[in-house]
Amino acid sequence: xxxxxxxxxxxxxxxxxxxxxxxxxxxxxxxxxxxxxxxxxxxxxxxxxxxxxxxxxxxxxxxxxxxxxxxxxxxxxxxxxxx
Length: 83
Description:
29% of the residues lie in helices and 16% in strands. The protein is of the alpha+beta class. It has 2 domains: 41 residues, no CATH class; 31 residues, no CATH class. Strands 1-2 form a two-stranded antiparallel ribbon.
């Protein structure tokens, strides 16, 4: 009998779904059991590279502090520093 919701959802499940979406273009998953263990290339033109985060420039960090209403010398949370 199928349950409407899984008993628990782990971060691994969440990130595997993101990986499957990101790496699925131009590739076919290699499934062993219930897990995706790798990918084989199907169409190289469709392949998309993973996202790369670039740190904000000092001027952009200052602008972000202004938007958030923080003082100019206030530390900025590192997760906000993704350009």
